[in-house]
Records
---
Amino acid sequence: MINASTIGPEPETTLPAPLPHPLLPDLISLAKATAESHGFALVSAQVLTHLQPMTLQVQIRRGNGDDVSLDDCAGFSAPMGEAIEASALLTEAYVLEISSPGIGDRLQSDRDFQTFRSYPVDVVHQDDEGREQRLSGTLLERTEDHVQINMRGRVKRIPRDSVISVELTSPTG
């Protein structure tokens, strides 16, 4: 009988990270400058070469933090396309996709907490002994002092200064 502890650790099988497209840094600079000149901030840009034709995805948000509308994305598409054409960086066919990053799973602003009231959440917080704990329930509210969730009919108030994160979860777990 062979004991696993006598064999040693299993060899790691990690795949190499995918290589970024060689033009990505130039495209990011171009997208950033174009976005800023039109009142937006560049959130991210990526080149998807596995798609035919290749796709350039650009995510923007308003410079002042306001939401980006569908009209904003459509309106920014033409100037971004013109900037790409003028730069001559891409010499093959491509699709340009302009979007907003949307909301993430992590709730941060007061607006997030208002919008997602009664949604299922996980609250990660530190208990009195400094250990990290995770509680799951339905978001009730966030006050200046507490985050309140409903855990199967029981209201749990978690001191806000001990909360590490509040994230949306799937209702099915």
Note: The first strand starts at residue 40 and ends at 48.
---
Amino acid sequence: MKAMQYVNVGYQRILTFECRSGGFNWWEGDDPGNPILSAIAVSMLSDTKRVYHAVDDAVIERTVAYLERIQGPDGGWGAESHLHAGNENLGAGALRSTCYIAWSLAEGGFASRPSVMKALGFIRGKVDAEKDLYTLGVCANALALGAKDGAALRPLLDRVRAEAVEEGDLLHWEMKGMTVVNSGGAAGNVEVTALMALALINGEATAQEVSKAVNWLAASKDPNGTWGYNTQATVLALKAFLKAATMQGSDTAADVRVLLDGKEIGARHFDNFNREVVWSVELSADQVKRHNVIELQFTGMGSLGYQVVSTHFVPWGKQDRPAEPLTISLSYDRNRIKVDETVKATAVLTKNDADLRGMVLVSLGIPPGFDVLTEDLDLLKSQKAIASYELTGRQVIVYLNELPAGESWVVEYRLKARYPVKAQTGESEVRMYYRGDVRSTAAPGELIVE
């Protein structure tokens, strides 16, 4: 019930981004729609419909009709550059745009539409000359789902396979350049590997070949349970896992034991009923020594994934902080005020790495018992000093299209005290929107309201 509540709230929220004249766009009230985001909406709403039957088919049909209205006479959709800062790669070139939209339409159940058939013809005529690995992966998915077109698909998948890096039972691809949402580094490798795994599955590759890519993705999960600290990488990895699960026909009947320094600390039997249930075994601080040996013992048949995660905390000011590509500081003009008075907060952001490009996300902690005066942020938005902002119960989230390298960027806003309290200001953070591993945090402070 809780999961379905999340789906319902998310679905209703997404509907607010539908444009009056058709399609979907970045912000509420934008018009007309953005072709790439409209394709994402078709894919997302179609996925949601499989588990949530209240999805309105008319919304999907309207979005498909919008995409068909703006399709070119040659079957393609043009390059799409007016996306979020750093997101321009999503529509870099007509072939990438066309492949992405055709893939979304086919995945949404519209493969037999004349618009998709025209798009596949456009793709066949352009794909041989394409050199970009990510675009080839998107093309492979479009061809595999759109027409099962072996004549065009087989040589394309052979080109994809030739770019793979194989190490034992692990298989992955390395991103050259940037992904559709401008991801690089670990997140870029996860995105392109998940994309290629989906292409192989949709192209009816062998389970053995797919399992090697899935193994690499499983081994690449970060401590937060996501991939590359990146939304798009995580979404594609999860899609690859779900698709790969449909290929696994073998039964599971196994016993798993977890041992710490030779002593059993957990045991469980897994079968077809519970093999996809997450089982956690946690070690308390008094169990952990300077050196530990953790063993996993598996007896029986089947295939289960696992992850080992450790966490630790360091007091503020005690750690050796290396130079960071992004930095943030948050200060207040005073730390002792009275009820109904205001305090001014000043966030100073600096980008020290000129190679970092794209949207920046700033999360500013809201102390308990304070209200944010939004007129300050509204003024910054009207002056285009910030792209947008939103309030949660504990944070102000500010979006910046770009942060100039080497310059300090200042965001000022006021908070009003509601009642007497002695409170921590909360953690504040700056990070690259599409590279969550590039981040920096500011130490919390203290405010006293009398």
Note: The domain at 2-245 is CATH 1.50.10.20 (Glycosyltransferase).
---
Amino acid sequence: MHKPPAFQFYPKDFLNDYNVVAMSMEEVGMYIKLLCYCWMENGIPVDDSHPIAKLLLNSKVAKCFYKKNERFFNPRLDEERKKQKRFAKSMKEAGLRGAKKRWGGHSQAIARGIASDSSSSSSSTAVLTPLPPLRKGGRKYQRKIAGSNSDPAYREAYEKNKAKEGKP
């Protein structure tokens, strides 16, 4: 899984945090910088020779972090990271449910055969685009893509349906 590039920042929670209220403006800037580093690097190294660790260890901001497995973490960032993981998982599951509903038991669209008519000006054989299954309300989409599909059988069925519907 990729690293999320950003985290949610809630100004009301930030400004109502007693630790933040007690910080000087310089410490607030340092805290935000440390939060960003902590997010990007999944923690701040405990090693006091590391410049970011030095910044943390030599400030009052350190009380906003905790130590675990030789790294410093922030509880609120941990919560945000968990939220993002839950959201990503729910979106993945929703996508899988949608694909299953649309394609049935197939994990992918079933590809149509390879075009074999020799009317193509190209010497290579083209693979045809898979089409979505017909479903109620799906004709508008199929009309839209019909012009780009070179399958003669599909075109014939498309023209018959169009004529049956009385559309030009």
Note: The chain has two domains: 1-108, 112-168.
---
Amino acid sequence: MDQFDNCPESALRWHQEGKGAVLATVIETWGSAPRRVGSQLAISSDAEMVGSVSGGCVESAVVVEAMDALEDGAARELEFGVSDEDAFAVGLACGGTIRVLVEPVGSVIPEALLTELVTHRAQRMPVAYVANLETKERSLARSGHDQAFRMDRSGFVEDSRTFVGVHNPPLRLIVVGAVHIAQALVPMARIAGYDPTLLDPREAFGSDARFPGETILHDWPDEAVQKLGLDSRTALVLLTHDPKLDDPALEQALRANCFYIGALGSKRTHAKRVDRLSASGFSDAEIGQIHGPIGLDIGASGPAEIAVSILAEMTRVLRQGA
């Protein structure tokens, strides 16, 4: 899975190569718009393009405006209506309207600011690009937009002309235990937008035959987790029932900043887990991060339904914070 759409990275590279570069961003939509708010298109002075703002409906018009913006060094707000015919061509039932902000790099987006944005993205640090369209000020923010970050939702601050473009790291799922539930959960999570990695030192379990095309690490879980790193856009799911495999990764996660930690097992199994962690010096607050028994209580039966309950709980925690 691609880590990012790489529009900012492409624009910065073109600018540093001496070409002109523009970033076009969807800032508002009405109706059945082809792309969501925050979607971007990077355009070079040679008309090279990365990304999209409409799925192909209005890109050519945006490129023309981008060339004019490079010439006069000023930002532009464009509004386009997407016809029903064009909308159908990109997979929508009916048309809508989109507003696009066109910003040349250098004259509108400072090179230093774009460099900082790209650095944050490379380091998997959530960051927001803030454009005040009245004062023309551009800045970055790592706090103060909690709801926007949680919901991955770019848009205008209410009753203002300040646009907040959220740049969240891609979601990751780390699964410890190549068991039957993982066989269902991993592909489901990929469909939901996660980049999954499976950890299991038991090569007979974590095999290509059982998980075709998936990323599988056969290191001991704590070593693998250390290599991968844990952050606020990572979910850790423990499925082995075996403390020797689960606990080392769990202990690292409790002192990291994972948005979700879930552990398979009955209430009795979880109580024993809590006792072990308490004995290892973890506080009640740290242990309280664990969702165990794992998954929403939907009466799930069998590996696939349990996987659905886990993914549903992950989504609830990600979007609602609980």
Note: The longest strand covers residues 21-31.
